[in-house]
Amino acid sequence: MSSRYIVRRVLLFLLVIWVGTSLIFFLPRLAPDRDPVAQRLGNLAATGGINTEGLDEMVEAYRAKFGLDQPLWKQYLNYMFDMLRFDFNYSIAMYPATVFEIVMRAVPWTVGLLLVSTLLAFAIGSLVGALLGWPRTPRVMHWVATPFLMMSSVPYYILGLVMMYVFAFKFKWLPLGGGSQYGTVPTLTWQYVWDVVHHAILPAASMVVAGVGFWALSMRGMMVTTLGEDYVMLAEARGLSPRRIFFRYAMRNAILPQTTGLALSAGTILSGSLLVEVIFRYPGMGSVLYRAITGFDYFMIYGVVFFVILAVGAATLLLDLIYPLLDPRIRYSRK
Amino acid sequence: MSRSWGYVRRNPLLLVGVAMFILLLLFWLIGPQVIDVTRARPISAMADQRPSAEMPLGSDSVGRELLPNLLVGSLYTFEIGLTAGLIGLVVGTILGFIAGYFGGVIDSFISTAADVALTIPALAVLVVIASVIKEVLNVRNLALIVAALSWMRPARTIRSQVLSMRERSYVEIARLSGMNDWQIIVQELLPNLLPYLAATLVGAVAGALLAAIGLEAMGLGPQTEPTLGMTIFWCNYYGALLRGMWWWWAPPIVAILYVFAALFAISSGLDELANPRLRRAR
Amino acid sequence: MSAPVLQVRNLCVHYETDAGPVKAAENVTFDLARSERMGLVGESGSGKSTTVLALLRMVTPPGRIRGGQVLLDGADLMALSPEQMRRMRGSAISLIPQAAMNSLNPVMRVRDHFYDTILAHDRTMSRAQLAAHTGELVEAVGLRPNVLRMYPHELSGGMKQRVCIAMGICLRPKVIIADEPTSALDVVVQRQVMETLGRIQRQLEASIILVGHDMGLMAQFVDKIGIMYAGRLVELGPVTEVFGLPLHPYTRLLINTLPSLDAKAVFKGIPGQTPSLLNAPAGCAFHERCPDAVGDCWKAQHVLTEVLPGRWVACPCHAGAAA
Ligand SMILES: Nc1ncnc2c1ncn2[C@@H]1O[C@H](COP(=O)(O)OP(=O)(O)O)[C@@H](O)[C@H]1O
Ligand SMILES: [Mg+2]
């Protein structure tokens, strides 16, 4: 495999993490004349929370590292060092829980929901799109697909709201929100698993329905381009069956840019799923972020944002590393 | 002329999309004549009222009347999308041009920057900015914030188009006939890029809308202006859906679906213009 | 003389564009005898590719075959069902594409291209038989067996073209269509590839239609030559006779523009503009450029007629002169 390709991708990943992390540090400090974190901590100390004692300690620690008396480069180094150790400080709102603990509790929910619905949407959408770009596909297919295509640019959570109203509020077929029945303890029983699946259906469905159209649309374009390629024409001249041409020649090649598209859209998809979680009060990172924003819990916000950037960077890297397995031109490039 | 008519006939969606926007424009133009927009402010109506003859879309829990709310909100939202999309397009086009036309180190730098910026989820960065200045967010600075992350896709599209055009014969001929870079860009490249620019603008506006409404749904939007995204946030905040107040949450959703459907229609109508190969599919 | 393998009768292909139908092939008629080599020449855009693709029934929209017959051993290909036609492609009539094209699937090994082709027509072959047969084919076109394990991007242009030739003959077709098979290769490789093609054709006793630009190459390679102009066959006859005494003024101009017959030469052009196939002028399409146009050439559409044994021409004046 071409090692230059791998090195490039890994470097890009590191660059993404570094730039992203630095943005979290510098952007808030661009705000004129105030450190919102210090301000928030000051407010808390003044009003006196429940855990005043611990909070005071935290404020002290924060001042020591990031106080205005420290030069900026030193604050930056302190900050980068903390991030590298996944030390995001305490949650301001849920002290004494740390940001890391809370995020870790939320991650499995988000990953589960996201992975299943994205893979489903990608697989179904690509197949539908390939069929839409295939001249032999019956006309009905186009009629059936059009509403999905129209929804391809609609944010997931907008569909989520509509589905929630219809299926959960009106017909009461599915739960209105949450990740499992309130108060249940996670156990490895069929009952619990079913409960989780039951709760995930609506949020997942809203992501799949919107995603299918998106992938179908781009796959249709790729498919049309691929069908114009000489090797497809020659495959027909060689007498291959339409089925063979569809799968092995057209779709197989059209899926390549589609995979690149998946890597490029990782951020948009994750952002979309976070918002779906907010709407459905799903116990993943989205809800954590939402609560952090409404509660001015800055450490929490920065922690979640860091993880989001890390996750998207890692997913992109993974897809970039899988890509050569699909495309021999990169796998066997002699450069 | 007959050719562009032929184009429209093959792509009726373009016409549908444009018609949808004209309708929307009419709503924004005529609306304020018959609807009292000042009632979009809190406590200007009795709270939690169902739709009625006086209040066609009812009112929300803080006493905003929802029809004027929709009028004002959809206009604001579109303003954000269009401003951010346009800025993104202009900045992206300039960067894409420079990268594609001059190549070399500048190209590597711009391309890498675009790749990095595309990989970092826009929403994550926007959340960091917006959460710091949440109290002072308004329509204008929200548009600027979103614009800051709308340049990458236009830059990429334009760059690859310029790259493929640069090597074509007419550019060579122009160069041989003594035109300088600037003249070539303005007189030869730009006109050929127009279809891509149109398609890219639609994409940029849709992307900006998506980002802006997403931020707002998290509560990171103008706190006092009833944009569509903020209306959805308030619905969620006050549990409008669970309280059966469909007249509160349904209008912004319908409006958002409408705008995205119109953008979709226009962009797929322009698709063939930007990718002539699609023609064979039909 | 045995019955021709391929008989083409009044083949018409139009591209339906926004601006109107482009008549890319009009009333194309010719016969191809068993193991005969026929050349098809004409300016770019004169409808050569369209014509040969129509023989395979592979014209893509907006193109449509508007009429005519293509008889292969007496059976009309136009009357076959799509599935029956598919079975003909590659096994009875095969296509060797232009060398510049990326004719091989970039994600498949060369070997699998052969297997695909063979299995599409014959499911009974075992893995071992496939491997043996493919090995022979590759050797026959002068390639080493290790190319079978390679991906297309690892091959040079000439190697790819040999692979395409080997694939074109792997089911022993009766008719091979080669559409400018060497136009993108450099001269040395071009000659080698043509020699390979010629040798294979002789071994198989297949008939071949060679589409090309290169009059010199045609003179060396083919038995019979057809000249196309603006979608019509304007002259057809044995290659030596056509070169010796061209009957159509267009053919004559083509041959006169060559430096000498033996030198490899691509014709450069003839004064005047190629007519638009879109709103074709009434009458003979060539009349505007024709040095010998007479009174009614601008309104009469000349039909391809046999004026001497085996010599067909679509021009009345020279038909008379030759007699
Ligand atoms: N897809 C198409 N749409 C419209 N016109 C076409 C299309 N393909 C070919 N043509 C027209 O048909 C004519 C014949 O083309 P072609 O058969 O490729 O010629 P040749 O192989 O002799 O160069 C040309 O004038 C070309 O403009
Ligand atoms: Mg051709």
The CATH topology of chain B:
MetI-like fold
What is the highest CATH level, the class of the domain at 108-284 in chain A?
A: Mainly Alpha
Main β-sheet of chain A: number of strands, strand sense, barrel status? none
User: Count the helices of chain A. How many?
Assistant: 13
Subunit arrangement of the protein: heterotrimer
Instruction: Assess the beta-strand content of chain A as a share of residues.
Output: under 5%
- How many separate domains of chain B? 1
What is the CATH topology of the domain at 108-284 in chain A?
Answer: MetI-like fold
Average of pLDDT of chain B: 86
Order of helices and strands of chain B: HHHHHHHHHHH
What bound compounds does this protein have?
adenosine-5'-diphosphate, magnesium ion
Number of strands of chain B: 0
Q: Report the total helices of chain B.
A: 11
Succession of helices and strands of chain A: HHHHHHHHHHHHH
CATH superfamily of chain B: MetI-like
- Flag low-confidence runs of chain B: none
CATH class of chain B: Mainly Alpha
Structural class, from secondary structure content of chain A? mainly alpha
Give unreliable regions of chain A as ranges: none
User: Judging by the overall fold, what is the CATH architecture of chain B?
Assistant: Orthogonal Bundle
What is the β-strand count of chain A? 0
How does this model look, in words?
The complex is a heterotrimer of chains A (335), B (282) and C (323). With 335 residues, chain A is mainly α. Chain A has a domain at 108-284: MetI-like fold (Orthogonal Bundle), CATH 1.10.3720.10. Helix content of chain A is 77%, strand content 0%. In chain A, α2 packs antiparallel against α3 (52-66), α6 (139-150) packs across α8 and α8 packs across α10. The longest helix of chain A is centred in the last third of the chain and has 39 residues, at 242-280. Chain A is globular. In chain B, α3 packs parallel to α11 (246-274) and α9 (181-217) runs antiparallel to α11 (246-274). The longest helix of chain B is centred in the first third of the chain and has 37 residues, at 66-102. Chain C has an eight-stranded mixed β-sheet, with helices on both faces. Mean pLDDT of chain C is 86; it is low at 261-265. Chain C is globular and about 70 Å long. In chain C, 46% of the residues are buried. Chain C contains ten helices and twelve strands. Chain C has helices spanning 48-55, 82-88, 110-121, 127-140, 157-169, 187-204, 215-221, 239-244, 249-256, 316-322, and strands spanning 6-17, 20-32, 37-41, 63-72, 75-76, 93-96, 175-179, 207-212, 224-229, 232-238, 305-308, 311-313. Chains in contact: A-B, A-C, B-C. The interface between B and C is small, with 6 and 5 residues. The complex binds adenosine-5'-diphosphate and magnesium ion (MG). Magnesium ion (MG) is lined by residues 48-49 of chain C.
